[in-house]
Every structure is written in structure tokens, then in C-alpha cells.
């Protein structure tokens, strides 16, 4: 949504005004204090809320033009290396220098500023692979829409996993997590075999994932769950660094990766490689194979 608002503010004339800039002189301060970042911060959160008092936009682009323009803007025009998505400061004809904002960043990081918590860069944790996937899909959508093909830009959805991820501690066991999510449409639990990193919960539907997300901040053993939406891409990337054991909802181990034997499937399934596949591989080759064969599960 922040990308959409930033794009709409950037057009000439803008489709959306900057509500925070409009409120600077005309409204009283609305401060919010917090110490999330280890210091006592005070954020200004005022913005124009009386939309009826705002004049209509002079922009005459249709919805189709705006949709094509959105994908083209971020895929081909926006300089992610130097500029930030920043609806707090944005207006037509300017670009926000991401290195001038509150949080330290790098050339390769995306900067998407939280408009009220100015130390929160919402794009900082996006991986290189994730950024590449998003830009590639934006470019494909732009080309397809320019060619007049809605089907290519938005193809029919196939089956896709619905994932939540959470960082775990040593005291958390697969059995404990499965008990916590019992009775939900959980398909699999993907658990780091060395208890290092994140566990992934795979659901059968978006509704099931929403139900699972209601467990956010629940305690399992000594660990408070901080659940975040994820995808099969996230699991594949994590599998490049950590071995995962997979369990069905009833606690039966359904897949495990052994560096010297490839994928071993206890009860038959999609993840399977010949026993000789992993013999003599380097750790890098093993990780690459593990990430590649994880895709067969989805």
C-alpha cells in the first residue's frame, strides 16, 4: 500500500496529495512516544483527516493507465539504489534520498519508510533474491499489460503454499509447535534440524493461515511466537543455510535431508533423490540441491 500511495503522489499532477505535509501548519501536534529502538523517541503522527475539504485531483489518467504506470514506475524508473519510498515527504517532481533518512542503509537495500515510526525501514529485511523476484514480476506485468494481455499479467492462480514463519529457541520442539496449532488446517511443519533459525508452518489455504496467525504472541515453552507471513520462496532460501525436518500435522516426519544421501522420504512423497546424489558434494552444492529439491514439495 505504501508503494501505491508513493506512486500516486509522484504523478504530475498527483492523484493523491501528501496528507502529512498538508497538516504541518494547519493542525495541532499529535505526538506518539515509544522506546522500541532502545531510546525514547517521539513521533509526529498528524495528517489531514477531513478528506471532504480537499479539492479533487486534476489527474485524468484512467485506472488502466495507472495500473500499467505503477508496474513501470517501480520496475524501470524508480532508483532503488539511491531513493526511498517515503509518503511522508513525497511530492511530484522530487526524489527522496534514502541516505538522508533516519535509518542507516546500504545501496542494495530497499528503503520503504514507515510514515510514523521513522526508524522503521519496512524494506530492510528483504533478501536479494526476494528483491529480484519482485522486480522481475513487475517488469513482466508491465510488458504484459502494455501488450493488452490481462491473462499474462495476472494468470489463473495455481496451488500455492500458505506459510507463516517464526524464530524459535532451543526449548521449542516440533511436538510443542504442532500441539499449539492442532485443529487448524496445518499441512506441514518445517523445523530446523539444529534448532537454529526459523520454523515454517505450511497451511492449506489463506483462511487457514489467517487462523494460524491468530496465535501470534502466544507462548510455546519459553518462546513467544512472532509469526510473519512467508512463502515457499522464503522456505527455499532458508533451506540454503539450515537443514530442515518436515512433519505432517499428526507429527509424522515426512521428509528429512541428509547431506550424504539426498532427500529421504519416510512415507513416500515428492522430495526424493537417489542415495548416491549427495555423496562427495561440497556443503555449497548440498545447500543448492536442498533448496532446489524443496521446490518439488510445493
Detailed description of the structure:
The chain is 30% helix and 16% strand. With 298 residues, it is of the alpha+beta class. The strands form three sheets. A seven-stranded antiparallel sheet has the order 8-3-5-4-9-10-11, sandwiched between helices. The two termini are 28 Å apart.
Number of strands: 11
State mean pLDDT (0 to 100 scale).
83
Strand content: 15-25%
Question: What overall form do the CA principal axes indicate?
Answer: globular
CATH topology of the largest domain: Poly(a)-polymerase, middle domain
CATH class of the largest domain: Mainly Alpha
CATH architecture of the largest domain: Orthogonal Bundle
Estimate nothing, just give the exact number of structural domains.
2
- N-to-C CA distance: 28 Å
Number of helices: 9
pLDDT under 50 segments (min length 5)? 256-298
Structural class: alpha+beta
Please trace the helix and strand order, writing H or E for each element. HHEEHHHEHEEHEEEHEEEH
Strand order of the largest sheet: 8-3-5-4-9-10-11
Structure summarized in a few sentences:
With 298 residues, the protein is of the alpha+beta class. The protein contains nine helices and eleven strands. Helices cover 30% and strands 16% of the residues.
Question: Can you give keywords for this protein?
Answer:
globular; 16% strand; two-stranded antiparallel ribbon; 298 residues; disordered C terminus; Poly(a)-polymerase, middle domain; alpha+beta; Alpha-Beta Plaits
Amino acid at each position: 500500500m505504501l508503494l501505491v500511495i508513493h506512486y500516486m503522489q509522484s504523478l504530475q499532477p498527483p492523484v493523491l496529495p501528501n496528507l502529512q505535509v498538508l497538516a504541518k501548519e494547519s493542525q495541532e501536534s499529535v505526538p506518539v512516544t515509544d522506546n522500541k529502538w532502545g531510546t525514547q523517541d517521539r513521533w509526529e503522527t498528524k495528517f489531514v483527516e477531513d478528506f471532504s475539504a480537499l479539492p479533487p485531483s486534476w489527474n485524468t489518467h484512467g485506472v488502466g493507465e495507472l495500473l500499467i504506470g505503477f508496474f513501470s514506475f517501480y520496475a524501470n524508473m524508480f532508483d532503488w539504489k539511491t531513493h526511498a519510498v517515503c509518503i511522508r515527504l513525497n511530492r511530484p517532481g522530487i526524489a527522496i534520498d534514502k541516505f538522508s533518512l533516519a535509518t542507516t542503509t546500504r545501496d542494495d537495500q530497499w528503503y520503504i519508510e514507515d510514515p510514523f515510526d521513522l526508524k522503521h525501514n519496512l524494506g530492510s529485511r528483504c533478501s536479494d533474491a526476494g528483491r529480484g523476484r519482485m522486480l522481475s514480476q513487475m517488469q513482466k506485468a508491465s510488458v504484459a499489460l502494455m501488450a493488452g494481455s490481462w491473462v499474462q499479467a495476472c494468470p489463473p492462480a495455481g496451488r500455492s503454499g500458505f506459510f507463516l514463519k517464526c524464530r524459535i529457541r532451543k526449548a521449542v520442539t516440533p511436538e510443542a509447535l504442532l500441539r499449539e496449532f492442532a485443529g487448524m488446517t496445518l499441512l506441514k511443519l518445517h523445523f530446523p534440524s539444529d534448532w537454529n533459525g526459523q520454523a515454517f508452518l505450511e497451511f492449506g489455504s489463506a483462511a487457514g493461515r489467517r487462523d494460524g496467525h491468530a496465535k501470534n504472541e502466544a507462548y510455546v515453552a519459553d518462546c513467544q511466537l512472532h509469526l510473519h507471513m512467508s512463502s515457499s520462496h522464503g522456505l527455499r532460501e532458508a533451506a540454503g543455510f539450515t537443514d530442515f525436518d518436515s512433519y505432517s500435522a499428526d507429527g509424522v516426519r515426512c521428509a528429512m535431508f541428509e547431506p550424504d544421501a539426498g532427500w529421504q522420504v519416510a512415507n513416500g512423497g515428492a522430495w526424493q533423490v537417489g542415495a548416491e546424489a549427495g555423496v562427495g558434494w561440497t556443503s555449497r552444492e548440498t545447500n543448492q540441491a536442498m533448496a532446489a529439491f524443496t521446490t518439488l514439495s510445493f
